[in-house]
């Protein structure tokens, strides 16, 4: 866990959590939104300490050093982190949530596309799964419509905190305001000036074979990822 545990007295857990290092992708969810049980439908069964985690999220106090050394508190804190993340994924597709994320997008808080021909177009956070602990948050470029690992990897931010649908909903709502430049340029590989595009040695050689469409991880991919995560957890435990 990173960040300053004494962020600000009385600021509240939500503000403290969103201002932690590497949490710049997150926005502050309204407490009224969190208190509305309709917005939390289906989440309770996912957590062992649901009520305690919810109380922590809505707390007007921030954790101190003594709290962060308590094992019981850390268990509740981890669940509060994931619970807030899943609530966050629902909030950012509301009118107010979209407006907050638009401000972050326009100011470049999510970073820029690493593709040279996108000319540093702003990107949006996206998850490759709606399930927790599948993969960390990725970024989506509206210009080239590709997904990348963010420059700042945000190790504590799960992709499920944003979900798979957020970028598309965002673009549909602000298509006139954000003015996405068309992706009119494509790099063409050459050898000594001769084009190899759609020829032997080019990945575009087979024009009849369409690339597979991926908008989220399939069930088969999820099983493989879970297996890798479980193996990594066992290795980390042995090392300890």
Automatic annotation (TrEMBL):
GO terms for cellular component: protein kinase CK2 complex. Keywords: Kinase, Transferase. It comes from the Eukaryota. InterPro entries: Casein_kin_II_reg-sub_N, Casein_kinase_II_beta-like, Casein_kinase_II_reg-sub. It holds the Pfam family CK_II_beta. SUPFAM superfamilies: Casein kinase II beta subunit. The keyword Nucleotidyltransferase does not apply. One of its GO terms (molecular function) is kinase activity. Gene3D superfamilies: 2.20.25.20, protein kinase ck2 holoenzyme, chain C, domain 1. Tetramer of two alpha and two beta subunits. Belongs to the casein kinase 2 subunit beta family. PANTHER family: CASEIN KINASE II SUBUNIT BETA. This is Casein kinase II subunit beta.
């Amino acid at each position: 866990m990173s960040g300053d545990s004494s962020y600000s007295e009385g600021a509240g857990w939500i503000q403290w959590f969103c201002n932690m290092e590497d949490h710049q992708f997150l926005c502050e969810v309204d407490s009224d939104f969190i208190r509305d049980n309709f917005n939390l439908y289906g989440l309770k069964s996912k957590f062992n300490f649901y009520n305690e985690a919810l109380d922590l999220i809505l707390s007007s106090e921030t954790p101190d050093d003594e709290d962060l050394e308590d094992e019981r508190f850390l268990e509740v804190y981890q669940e509060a982190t994931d619970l807030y993340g899943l609530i966050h994924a629902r909030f950012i597709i509301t009118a107010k949530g979209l407006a907050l994320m638009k401000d972050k997008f326009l100011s470049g808080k999510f970073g820029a596309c690493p593709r040279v021909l996108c000319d540093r177009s702003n990107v949006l956070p996206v998850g490759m799964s709606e399930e927790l602990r599948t993969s960390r948050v990725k970024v989506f470029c509206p210009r080239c419509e590709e997904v990348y690992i963010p420059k700042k990897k945000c190790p504590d931010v799960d992709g499920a905190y944003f979900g798979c649908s957020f970028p598309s909903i965002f673009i549909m709502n602000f298509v006139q305001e954000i003015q996405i430049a068309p992706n009119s340029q494509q790099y063409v590989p050459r050898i000594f000036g001769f084009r190899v595009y759609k020829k032997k040695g080019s990945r575009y050689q087979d024009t009849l074979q369409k690339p597979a469409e991926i908008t989220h991880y399939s069930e088969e991919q999820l099983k493989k990822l879970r297996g890798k995560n479980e193996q990594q957890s066992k290795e980390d435990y042995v090392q300890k």
